[in-house]
Amino acid sequence: MPWREMSPVEQRQQLIRDWASELWTVTELAAQYGVSRKTVYLWLDRYAAEGVSGLVDRSRRPRHQPQATPADVVETLVDLRRRHPQWGATKLLTVAARSAPRVTWPCRSTVCTLLKHHGLVRPRRRRHRPASGSRPRPPSAVN
Prior knowledge:
The protein is mainly α.
């Protein structure tokens, strides 16, 4: 008979069943399942509020990024770069700032990252360096 693996949701459901049997305390359940008491209380509260659907993993992605560059600024810079593929971040910022001086433009490094993210920057070829021991060393001066 093969071993049966349990998904995290099934383990949480088992934790809820064990708690409902009133044979275990929260501290004992936390030790048995290898989580903190705070986590046990979290799963119990979610189960009470939402049922089994509350035991499913949730996204950890932030809902809001206050420091994110506004979409219209990104679109302007990307469009300008597509029209002028040889321009770098500094020139793009200079030209964009001339056309819209009241907009708060990001710094040069942010523009570089945005261009790279949109696939508008080709990585440079790395220069091949010879191995360190391939050149003979000059003889040292002996006094």
